[in-house]
Amino acid sequence: MQKKYGEAEGLEMRKDLENKLFLMRKVRFIIGMCISLWGLLFWFFKVAGFEPSMLFLLVLLEMFINQPYRFIVNRINNLNWVLLLHQVLDVILITLCMYYFGGTDAYFIIVVYSLIIIFAGVVVTIKSSFLIAGLCSLSYLILFNLEFFRVIPKGHVFNFNLNPPLSIIMGVFIAISLFLIAYVSSFLAKIILKKSEESREAMNKLKFAEDAMVQAEKLAVVGQFASGIIHEIKNPLGVILSGVEYLENEIADKPDLKVSLEKIRQSALNANSIIKDVLNFSRPNEQKLEIIDLNTALNDNLRLLKEVSVGPNIQVVKEFSREPLVVRLNTNQFEQVFFNIFMNACEAMANGGKITIRTYCSEYQQKGLKSGFRDSSCFIFGEKIGVLEIQDEGIGISEENLPRLFEPFFTTKQNKENAGLGLAICRRIINAHKGEIEIKSVPKEGTIVIIRLPLFEESRRR
Amino acid sequence: MKKKILMIDDEEDFCYFTKKNLEKTREFDVIIETSPEKGIQVAIEQQPDLILLDIIMPELDGSEVAFRLVNDARTKDIPIIFLTCLADEKDLGRYDGLSMVGGRPFIAKPCQTPELVRVIREVLERKQNQQ
After folding, report:
1. For A371-400, what is the mean pLDDT?
2. Burial of B79 by CB count in 10 Å (0-12 exposed, 13-18 middle, 19+ buried)?
3. Is residue B127 classed exposed, middle or buried when 0-12, 13-18 and 19+ CB atoms within 10 A define those classes?
4. Which one of A4, A52, A246, A429 has the fewest beta carbons within 10 angstroms of its own beta carbon?
């Protein structure tokens, strides 16, 4: 199950890899064109030993690598391998070019090696730039040895006639240069990544701020609305419920009327439940926090759950952390959050299934916008946090509904007593605890609700 | 002997059915007063065993009524149970088996008669024990 969520997240990674491959394809095309131009210049100036047929073979090879791109991308699951294959082919192609233009003596081809190393470092990953540097050095070494032991004839276009010791020194020098280039490019990549991360973060924050503003406006409207009319609604509801009770006693001998009265009572109770939700949502949170182990709080809540029926064939699995996760909680509010999420999980599994309640200590990793609402300013990057995951095997949530789950009055449930405020209240409560709540889901597979809370020791230091 | 309960609430219909439901138990006699000012007078004159007091009322706030009753020597010993639609059971802190706010029992509206009867019995029992 965990893997499936990984796969869902992996879609984003795949898109990223596809973009990288597309960019590599473009770069390869440009390099191919440069080599062609170079060859044409040689041909035009009639450089001795130059054979255009060999050059065109290389350009064709380059084209051959480029063409099946779409065919490969749509059929291969792990694009990392395609990326690696592309890079290895690049090294081979450049080595062939190097051999063609003068063998190991044509060390100016090293510039082309440098280009793909820098490209790998900046666009792909830092690791891959070192890998390519290694591959380039290895290719150069193989070419050098093949030439040295006369397995292949020496360069075609230029012939600098370097003596073996000088060639070796040159080889080592080139290998060191290549690794230096990989190091510098990785350094550059880090700076670029940091900058792009910062700008993405800024964009996310802006989006969050906009979302928060919209939510705050909704909240203000709900608050005004709620405080104004709840009193007016609750009183008539009180009258209806008291009236039903009175009539039930009076018509004890008329079962058909009793059924009708029961329906009236249920409708009134449903209305009352919606009002409770609106009231909870609209009032300001008064925090009465106590220092408690998250696992203890969960065990207390699970004990309470045993008293209510959670549905047929529902198995609850606890995977609690060994170490205590000390957090500051308003236990009543936390109970509300937990019950809400737990009941959602039960409702999502009409035919039964497993609900896993998992807790662990983790370090906060900024991931950007995934789903729902994440207040990114809650935690510091790398800060130790307590994580609670409630995972079900239910029907899941569709992709278009996922970002709207925390909106007030948004609901996918059909039952009338649902005001669509449950998760909005949960988020409000968790945000008031300086935590965050996130929901990931795979339709027909299940949903996982992740709550991150600051650990007490950490929060005290702030 | 039936206990006398004074209900001060501006919601006439709610009072009507609550009175019917409470009297059905044959344990209580319920006097209804929809005006808070008159309610205080009735409390002084009738000396009920318990007062059910709404909080939000147009003429006089329930807390103000309670303040006057508690500070009047003639009514200071009459226990008061607040009825409120501003909160529900979860908001009211549980203390010694009862929902309490500021040391006074509260019942969230709309309330079910068995719960109301339970709280009334509990409060009356405590008063008796204190005496």
Report:
1. 72
2. middle
3. middle
4. A52
Q: What tens digit of pLDDT does each residue of A183-192 get?
A: 787 777 778 7
> Exposed, middle or buried, A310 (CB in 10 Å: 0-12/13-18/19+)?
middle
Instruction: Centre a 10 Å sphere on the Cβ of residue A415 and count the other Cβ atoms it contains.
Output: 8
**Mean pLDDT, to the nearest integer, of A160-174?**
64
Chain B residues within 8 angstroms (CB to CB) of chain A? 11, 13-14, 17-18, 20-21, 24, 56, 85-88, 90, 109-113
Residue A178: Cβ within 10 Å count: 23
**Cβ neighbours of residue B95 under 8 Å, at least 6 residues apart?**
none
ipTM: 0.75
Question: What is the C-alpha to C-alpha distance for residues A251 and A244, in angstroms, rounded to an integer?
Answer: 10
Two structure tokens written together for A436: 């965050």
Find all residues with CB under 8 Å of A240, minimum gap 6, and list them. A264, A265, A268, B110
Q: Pairing mode, if any, of strands A353-363 and A384-391?
A: antiparallel
Contact A235 B109 (CB under 8 A): yes
User: Cβ contacts of residue B36 below 8 Å, gap of 6+?
Assistant: B8, B10, B57, B59, B60, B61, B62, B64, B65
Chain B residue numbers touching A237 (CB-CB < 8 A): 109-110
* Mean pLDDT score across all residues of chain A: 74
